[in-house]
Write a structure and sequence with these properties.
heterodimer; A: 124 residues; alpha+beta; 4-stranded antiparallel β-sheet; B: 472 residues; VC0802-like; 2 domains; 7-stranded mixed β-sheet; 14 helices; 25% strand; globular; tRNA (guanine(10)-N2)-methyltransferase activity (chain B); EC 2.1.1.214 (chain B)
């Protein structure tokens, strides 16, 4: 699971959960793979993500690098910044771990990089 | 005169396959690149269109996406009659012709609807001796490839003596037919029973207008066969599926020659096989009715082949029991129980999901199975925020078809919107009832046949007994 995906996931479908976002990450196995840098894509994605959630997730996984606390202005021209975001969003992957619902503490296991967001029949 | 040289005529030559998808695919591709065109010949069933385009670059853009297009030709002349074609090339288009006649070239003769031997084709080339050749012929590596095409119509039982149409021009580029081989399921690492054929999956992705740098989601991803085409065109791909076993490649192998699945089969491995792993984001195990995506997650396109309940079951998490509780110890290894998910509800949910998550003008493209006998267009889903922009049919059997539906988002969801409506026809029930009916008819016919044989046999026995009697 990449951090871009993590940024989009929630546990809001759980019975009794209101927001269910952001999910906490507990990682046992983290992998870094090189992905082709596409500055236009990263610049387009930044307004769609919750940047503070990305920072916290990257911090937790030890891959925050030189990411600043806030999105700087004129993102499109700031290649250094785009590269940092690119690395955190697409190159860092949780292979094994858990996503944890912030409200109920329910765990969603990640196996072979694939999060299992299925609920049990008593939770829907 | 100036008008004529600004817009050139181009011949788009199509494969005569999935004909009902042609107009939709072309409309999507022209729209995707914002290419304006005038059509001179745009017939729904013939394998060619003649269009006027601003530039050769536009022609290349179209060909870079279309899988139904065989090739594009800069059309120098076309007619219903060869002598008229010759006249055009010799007089009106002489300027255009001579600019391309100074380098190495070859002429290819192609005929549609009638077969000719190589010798006959060479004779046809001889007709063009009048062209002002300055360069030399090179069959192996020509700078320019010229095409002469004869079209004899679609009626194989009534082939005319002379061609209905003749075309002459310069080859510009090929369409994406090669993807059918490149993405062939035969060589793909990870496939399932219902993996989408590469040609149709490319058509599906073209219908979404997804392009380089878009994010595309398949909410019923399976083995990811549709996402491969999307990634091939530069989109970033996401998938979800309710089936844990499928996404982890723990189901029975689909190849007859394969006893067990390999350890490293996955959607990600397929992406790697085709060298498009940079465009793979993730797949997640998730029930479509209990969305795991946060509400404000905006997607550029949604494309999917949902289960129809025939070859793959349509299920969601749930139980028929009144109250269930799963203890903490059980929870880790518990496999949630599933209940049937009526097909009309699935489509309603899909459109509601699309209305919520698509960007404005974004498209959702999906297959919709229909029972041909009773189908009317009123059964198609209607959503206040989505407009149906294309509908192409693939016939599957004498009684069923599937439609590739394309909806475009026209407005944001508001609280006072009318609900999404859809015909409550249950495809699965109709499908199996029809099959049962046909079986009953077949059984009755066989039964009757057996009774008839028996009667004849008895008659013969009686006859031989009586004749035996008389002989003795």
């Amino acid at each position: 699971m990449k951090l871009l995906t993590h940024n989009m996931l929630s546990s809001k479908s759980l019975k009794g959960v209101v927001v269910g976002y952001p999910l906490k990450i507990e990682a046992y196995d983290v992998k870094v793979t090189e992905v082709e840098f596409n500055p236009e894509f990263i610049a387009k994605v930044i307004p769609k993500i919750d940047y503070s959630v990305l920072i916290r997730a990257a911090e937790y996984l030890g891959h925050v690098g030189k990411l600043p606390g806030h999105v700087p202005e004129n993102v499109e021209k700031n290649t250094d910044f785009l590269k940092e975001v690119h690395h955190a969003l697409l190159e860092v992957e949780v292979v094994k771990g858990d996503l944890v619902c912030p409200e109920s503490g329910r765990r969603f296991p990640i196996t072979d990089g694939i999060p299992n967001m299925l609920l049990n029949e008593d939770e829907v | 005169m100036s008008q004529k040289f600004r817009y050139k005529n181009y011949l788009l030559w199509f494969a005569q396959e999935h004909v009902d998808f042609r107009v939709a695919e072309m409309d999507s591709i022209f729209g995707m690149f914002n290419i304006k065109y005038n059509s001179i010949v745009k017939n729904k069933i013939h394998p060619f269109w003649v269009v006027q385009l601003d530039s050769e670059d536009d022609a290349r853009k179209i060909a870079s996406r279309s899988i139904l297009l065989r090739y594009v030709i800069e059309l120098w002349a076309f007619s219903t009659d060869l002598s008229c074609l010759n006249l055009q090339l010799q007089t009106e288009e002489v300027e255009l012709v001579s600019t391309h006649m100074s380098s190495t070239f070859k002429i290819i003769v192609e005929t549609f609807g009638k077969h000719f031997t190589q010798k006959e084709k060479i004779d046809k080339i001889e007709n063009f001796k009048y062209l002002p050749y300055k360069g030399t012929v090179s069959l192996k590596d020509p700078d320019k490839i010229l095409y002469y095409i004869e079209y004899y119509g679609l009626d194989a039982n009534n082939v005319p003596e002379k061609p209905e149409n003749v075309f002459f021009g310069r080859w510009i580029t090929d369409g994406q037919r090669n993807l059918m081989k490149e993405l062939s399921l035969k060589q793909r690492k990870f496939i399932g029973n219902t993996s989408m054929d590469p040609q149709l999956s490319v058509i599906m992705v073209n219908q979404t207008k997804a392009k380089e740098g878009d994010i595309i989601l398949d909410p019923f991803v399976g083995t990811g066969s549709v996402l491969i085409s999307a990634a091939k065109f530069g989109a970033y791909t996401l998938g979800a599926d309710i089936d844990y076993q499928t996404l982890h490649a723990r189901t029975r192998p689909s190849r007859i020659t394969q006893k067990v699945r390999e350890k490293d089969e996955s959607v990600a491995a397929n992406m790697k096989q085709y060298g498009i792993q940079d465009r793979y984001l993730d797949v997640i195990v998730s029930d479509f009715t209990k969305s795991a995506w946060r509400s404000c997650f905006q997607i550029d396109a949604i494309v999917t082949d949902p289960p129809y309940g025939i070859r793959e079951s349509v299920e969601k998490i749930g139980t028929s029991k009144d109250s269930v509780s799963i203890s903490e110890e059980q929870a880790d290894s518990h496999i949630p129980s599933k209940v049937d998910y009526a097909l009309p509800h699935l489509f309603k949910d899909l459109l509601n999901f699309a209305a919520e998550h698509l960007k404005m003008d974004g498209r959702v493209v999906f297959w919709f199975p229909i029972f041909r006998k009773t189908f009317t267009s009123e059964q198609l889903p209607v959503h206040p925020c989505l407009e149906l922009v294309a509908n192409s049919e693939q016939v599957l059997s004498s009684h069923s078809s599937r439609l590739l539906l394309t909806y475009e988002k026209t407005k944001e969801v508001e609280s006072d919107d009318p609900p999404c409506v859809i015909g409550e026809d249950n495809f699965r029930d109709l499908f199996f009832n029809e099959r049962e009916e046909k079986r009953k008819v077949r059984r009755a016919r066989k039964c009757e046949e057996r009774a008839r044989m028996k009667r004849e046999w008895e008659k013969r026995v009686m006859a031989s007994v009586s004749s035996g009697d008389s002989a003795s």
